Amino acid sequence: MKLVIVESPTKAKTISKFLGKDYEVTSSYGHVRDLPKGALGVDVEKNFEPHYVIPRKVQKRVTALKKEAANADSVILATDEDREGEAIAWHLMHALHIDPKNAKRIVFHEITEEAINNAVKNPRDINENLVDAQQARRVIDRLVGYKLSPFLWKKIRGGLSAGRVQSVAVKLIVEREEEIKAFKPQEYWSVTARLKKNGGEFEASVSKVNDKDIGKLDIKNEKSAKEISEAIKSSQIHVGAVIKKEVRRNPSPPFTTSTLQQTAAGRLRFSAKQTMMFAQKLYEAGHITYMRTDSLNLSKESLTTAKSFISNEFGKVYASSAPRVYKSRSKLAQEAHEAIRPTNPAKLPQEIKDERERKLYELIWRRFLASQMPQAVFDATSVEIIAKGLKSTYTLKATGNILKFDGFLKVWLSKFSETELPELVEKDELSLMEIKPEQHFTEPPPRYNEATLVKTLEEFGIGRPSTYAPIISVIQDRGYVEKDTSRRFQPTETGFVVNKVLTEHFPQIVDVKFTANIEEDFDSVAEGKRKWQAIVENFYKPFDENLVKKYEEVTKEEFVEKTDEKCPVCGKDMVVKFGRFGKFLACSDYPECKTTKSMKAPPKEIGMKCPTCKEGEVIIRRTKRGKVFFGCSRYPACDFASWTNPLEPAPEKKTVRHKASTKKEDSKKG
After folding, report:
1. Are 41 and 69 in contact, with CB atoms under 8 Å apart?
2. Is 445 exposed, middle or buried, given 0-12, 13-18 or 19+ CB atoms closer than 10 A?
3. 105 and 119, same domain (yes or no)
4. Contact 298, 339 (CB under 8 A)
5. pLDDT tens digits for 164-210?
6. Is residue 524 domain-shared with residue 426, that is, in the same domain?
7. Which domain holds residue 353?
8. Which of 23, 146, 283, 290 is catalytic?
9. What is the pTM of this model?
10. What's the total number of domains in the chain?
11. Catalytic residue at 290?
């Protein structure tokens, strides 16, 4: 009997369908060894040797696996194909005392019969380089967490933590908030005309004055906008140049982990954590390929299958003549892996039972098929309108787009609206129906949401596909950031203070380039070019020296904010301190005087009367767990409460989504 070990029962159940009676498939339920929770677990004096333990909660499972392994002729470790999966296989081998000669490692991008049988026929040894790369990450992250967190406890307050990647993510959010606070809106104006020709109306905006281009901010005030408007009113208006051309638009590549998280956040309002949870279930059920990847590669078999499916279901005109091949822009992408795609396009989205899994699968299914379909073709028209006044000549610009061939848009719905212009010929005279000067103000950069934060982390080379969702979860769980009513991240007071400490005293820990360079170091270990202990030593030595120095230099008083308020008990000055729930006032004579006062900010109103009692104001409130909701300021006299902002339109109970039609469906409609 051959024993196959995977991480989850669902994965085990799916794989067991494809293997014969000679195989028994079981699961480890995830990690079986890790660094200890209550201790550093890394011997910095002995070449950073990690001390791994079997957590108590999995000891019973490990004992059962040992018995099964002892009775097996050989053990096949079929954990995930990435570095973490390789490390789990390595830990299983050691925890179960399996002889390396009897342990075989198999990997696959998808859980299908063909993929599993091919993997079983081609086992390999555990890749020690991948294991070492994962060890380097784990050890450095442990050193930062266990060495730096106590510093924060001593200098600010207990319960805080620092992390090599999480602290950089918090810094990005804090810096964006500081940009927003420092931003000063700038006024500008636009001038738009509504014009008419042979019964057809269209709009054009001022783009030039006397052949000088007008930029977005060039019309600075109402006076200038009205002067231009009045001049155009009294001008003779005719068509200038008319430029018509065919425009082609390419489909996007198939999903990687980050682009899937970004798109699911925008289209489905899934958090990164939810996206990965549903994707994991789809993968383990055999519906999609492995979901932690930064590669855009597609297998030859998948390309052949896609072309055949598209041709049969949508018509030959929608099947690209040659396969579309995509290359990742990131030099760190692991090209040996595949992009995220359906294992079989013939598995239609409506066949997935769970609603949220179905929505995510449909997104993956559509994106993959679209990536192998022809360009969308548009007829684009650009028209210059000339308004010749007494003093100046004004040029207005109008554009139109007409979809000529939908191509990949047949399955991938994207934002596009057709704008049809009337038939216009050079020197045609036009009638002015209306001229509109409009005031605008420049806006600050938006706060990060989950999609834009993941995109930024990826662009900077911070983290890897498996780390984006955990990073986003941990910075919220630690109370460093929270989501506003628009589901965008804003730093808390604690986030501001911790970031200030780390930026001023441990700049390398929160330096974007430094963190990205460490990721490259991990990659060099995975490629067998460097030893993992050398990577750790290069990081740890200067970090530890600086930490020792900062314990001496930095005092807690640096982070104490003085006030004019006196202690009501002893008369000493009250100072601002930080607790688990934000700022509070405390006597400066602590611990002799332990007087404290809360500093609760007044509730934030949204500018709306309570819809229930008509007397109170609707205010933003929080549950004990920190979740935002909207309630009446007269509570408990009025018990109005809502999870959604009453000022925003209520979401539809049932969302009707466009569905890609197929030849079969079209024939039914016919």
Report:
1. no
2. exposed
3. yes
4. yes
5. 999 999 999 999 999 999 999 999 999 999 999 988 899 999 999 99
6. no
7. 257-371
8. 290
9. 0.82
10. 6
11. yes
